[in-house]
Structure formats: C-alpha cells, structure tokens
Design goal:
- With about 375 residues, this protein is of the alpha/beta class.
- The protein has two domains: about 270 residues, TIM Barrel; about 80 residues.
- Helices cover about 45% and strands about 10% of the residues.
- It is built from 13 helices and eleven strands.
- The protein starts with 10 loop residues before the first helix and ends with a helix.
C-alpha cells in the first residue's frame, strides 16, 4: 500500500528543471556565472548534524507527509520535519500513525515530531521513532489545535512549566539523538513565558528550538511578532528557528535580521508553493530574487507530487489527499475555482493526472496567445 522506494522520488523529473549547488535547488533561472555569496557550507548545526542552509519545513499534520517532505528537500529546504506522531502507543498501529512512521529513502537528517503530555510515554515514543529511523526527535509544544490542547499537549503544555521540564528531560535522557523543541511565545499575551521555557530547554539538553511568533491564545489570528523570538535568541546559546508569517524572501531576511535566529521555519507558506525554499535560499545567498516559476514548472512539480501521493497512499487515499494539495497549488491561478470543484469529484488517479494536464495546457495556450 505504501511506497518504500529507496531513491528520492522527485529527483528524476525535477532535476531536469533546476541547476543545484550544495544540494539546494535555486531555480531554473539561476545563472551559473552569477556571483554567489556563501559564507559557510554549514550554516548551523543541530547536535552533530550539519544543516547547509537556513530553511526548515515546519511539521504540519496532514501536510508534511513523506512525499511533501521529499519535495521540499528537493526544492531547497535544508531540513524537513515530519507530521507529529502521537505518544499514545495504542494508536501506533493505526493507518495514520503507520503512514507517518515511514522514512525510507529520505535525505538525512530525518526529523520526527512527537506529541503528548506524559513524560514516560513521550520518552517511549522518542525511542520507538529512533528505532524506525529518526535521527532527530522534535517535541511538539507549539500546536494550538483544540483537539491537541484539550489533551494538555501541544502549546497547552506551556501553561505547566514543571511538566514541560519533566517531558524535556525524559525525552533527552531516553534517546542518543539530538532532541529539538517547538514552542510558541507563551500561553497568551499576559503570559509570554517563551524565554523561561527556552532556558529550561537548553538546561535539559535540547539541541535546537523553533519558536512561532504567536501565543497559544492567538492560534493563527493577527500577525506574528518577533520581539519575543529575539529575546529568546539573546537568552540561550542553542540555535533558534524563527517561525510565523514568513512568506517571501524579503520577509525571511527581515525576520532573520530582526531576531538574530539561526534559521527560519516555513509552514503554511509552503503549501502549494514548495519552491518558496529555493526562492528564499537564493535571496539569502545572493541578495537577488528569482522570477516566479513558469506554468510549465508548476505543472511538472504538481504532476510529480501527484504521482508520489498516489504511489505512497494508494489509489483510494491518494486521490483524496491529492485534492487539498492541488487546491493549494492552483489558488492563485485563473479559473481555478471551477477546476477545483470538478477535480474534487475525481476518484481515479489517471483521470486526476489528465485533468491537471488539460488545465495547464489551456493556461499555457492562453499565456502564449497573450504574449
């Protein structure tokens, strides 16, 4: 049912589109003789692992499955983090959990996020995922979803600092791989305890910290703030990844400059736009912005993504999971609303591919006629 191909699935088709130094795709329009400003191949480290750029794909439930993680790595992410795996061992044999535990063929280091609120269960979950190939364990204390927080997990944990400390120490002591932590700036605007938890994390042996610039109470409302992230960066010595509302090369540079963070973590902005990593990486290295990808490039990337979703999940689940991804890819393209409505009724993999091909052929023809 699930693919276990050992080779990077996107390399064959996508490699023909992009010239790539340092294993990061910088774009079809990159000029080989263009000056490239690179201070160091390794831009930051997480434990013993070298990360060769400042771009990390955030863990997102229902999004950062293996096909999407591998695609983002091919398109410039230096590190990608899996969907969260529950610490509840009674759920480990479920289809959802089993799918999230598949890491064969992924580029290293392989980072797996775990979620829960019981220190012993979190330690056991960390050990189980390391046995299955995880080279980094990430602890989820940043998810604001109600179904997670109702179980006193995710960002709800930030309200209980003693429990946070127990979990951090239990997980770090349980495995011999680096452990990272994802948090928010605090529980609410009156309780921004991100600095306190960051120091606690460093003392417990956490190797790197990702911080989303909102509180648990904010969820995704309003705008992310980066002053608290800057305070956290100034209070600890481990690498910090800034997260929240980073959706362009310019914004990425501004956030890095403002916070002093070692890296940025991209989440929702990568949905339907996985090439954002190559765009940001190119800008950070050269100070120059890449053009938007052509319709032909978007079609190729999307079609390859569809293939991998179908292969990984099988025909039944693959066609259904593909629908949201196609919607994200096409949300800014002409006549996409009517197309998505029809596409969401298709239950056959071949018909999905044919539908996407026809849609892009029409767009490309219209573009050529207007030129």
């Amino acid at each position: 049912m699930f693919s276990a191909s050992p080779d990077p699935p996107f390399a064959g088709i996508i490699a023909s589109l992009f010239w790539t130094p340092h294993n990061a795709f910088l774009g079809a329009h990159y000029e080989v003789n263009q000056p490239l400003v690179i201070k160091d191949e390794t831009l930051f480290r997480i434990g013993s692992h070298s990360i060769d750029n400042q771009l990390v794909l955030a863990p997102m439930a229902g999004v950062t499955d293996r096909p999407f993680r591998q695609l983002c790595r091919e398109l410039g992410a230096g590190l990608v983090v899996s969907e969260m795996v529950t610490s509840d061992s009674s759920l480990w044999n479920s289809r959802k959990s089993q799918t999230r535990m598949i890491h064969r063929g992924e580029a290293e280091p392989r980072s797996v996020q775990i979620a829960g609120s019981d220190p012993e269960m979190m330690a056991a979950a960390a050990q189980m995922n390391v046995e299955r190939g995880a080279q980094l364990i990430d602890i989820n204390m940043g998810c604001p979803a109600k179904k997670v927080c109702k179980k006193a997990a995710g960002s709800a944990l930030m309200k209980d600092e003693p429990l946070v400390n127990e979990i951090l120490n239990a997980v770090v002591d349980a495995v011999d791989v680096p452990v990272t932590l994802k948090i928010r700036t605090g529980w609410d605007t009156n309780n921004r305890n991100g600095v306190t938890i960051a120091r606690m994390a460093e003392d417990a042996g956490i190797a790197a910290l990702a911080v989303h610039g909102r509180t648990r109470a904010d969820a995704y409302k309003g705008s992310a703030e980066y002053d608290t992230i800057a305070q956290i960066v100034g209070s600890i010595d481990i690498p910090v990844m800034a997260n929240g509302d980073i959706d362009s090369p310019l914004k990425a540079k501004q956030v890095l400059d403002h916070t002093g963070a070692a890296a940025i973590m991209i989440g929702r902005a990568a949905q339907g736009r996985p090439w954002i990593f190559r765009e940001i990486d190119h800008y950070l290295r050269t100070g120059q912005q890449l053009p938007e990808p052509s319709l032909e490039e978007v079609q190729t990337i999307l079609s390859t993504h569809l293939c991998e979703l179908h292969q990984f999940y099988g025909d039944f689940m693959g066609t259904r999971i593909a629908r949201k991804h196609v919607g994200w890819y096409l949300k800014t393209l002409p006549n996409s609303e009517a197309f998505r409505k029809d596409f969401n009724q298709i239950n056959n993999t071949q018909d999905q591919h044919a539908s996407v091909q026809r849609y892009f052929e029409q767009l490309i023809t219209t573009e050529e006629q207007a030129a």
